[in-house]
Write a structure and sequence with these properties.
By secondary structure, the protein is an alpha/beta fold. Helix content is 49%, strand content 14%.
Length: 290
Amino acid sequence: MKNQTHMTRIALLGAGGKMGCRLTDNLAKFNHQLLLVEVSDAGKQRIAERGQSVTPQADALAAAEVVILALPDRVLGKVAHEVVPQLKPGTIVITLDPAAAHAGQLPKRDDISYFVTHPCHPNVFDHFATAAERDDFFGGVHARQAIVCALMQGPDGHYAVGEELARQFYGPVSRSHRITVEQMAILEPTMAETCSIALIMALREVMEETVRRGVPRAAAEDFMFGHIKVELGIGFGRTAFPFSDGAKLIGEYGKSRIFREGWLRELFEPANVKAQVEAIVAGQLPEVAR
């Protein structure tokens, strides 16, 4: 039985894409009027497979109380400039990532609201009761996750509307954090992508070098994945068990050999965070100020 919440007319642009389908599936559980907009044939087919139909974009925008832009960062700003002038005053525009918003890609219009939200994804330290929860790496299907939300502009009451919708389309949601768009850009891309993806892919390269040097792959994987769990637990204070003196010593040696002085502070400087989001929407590497 569907949740009988207040019906909201929602125009979902990019409804047949990877993220759009996740949102469509979750929002269909609630009492909303979904106006699904999709331009690609493959996307339209995915919508049809869900028993849903496509609404022409002009009709969806004319009726919508909320517009969700489930679109790639590189096209979101262009589409927003096409869409936003057509909206009724008081419409809430939701983006699923801070990049376009922080990069200044959203058109200026004072009589609408901009709400930005992003999933945290299921917590590596969480306990999952089922294999389906354990294997839901992204969240929004089986595993619970936290979310972050920001009201970029608009009346404060629109924050509550946006957060409730975010809880629905990212659900199951464990908790929600209200932050600013600027803080969300620090979280992603800088913390979660610029730094974390680089470090994680470096770990993959480390393991591949281990295998190249003759260690059996199964042994290397078991050793790496087990130690990652221990080291995450110790490093993030999730266990009282400390690193041994020898581990701390050789860890500091590794840090001095791998990282250059000042790299972390440099990447988190506001100008460099801005450069990173601008790079994402432009699709080219940023110029990092030193």
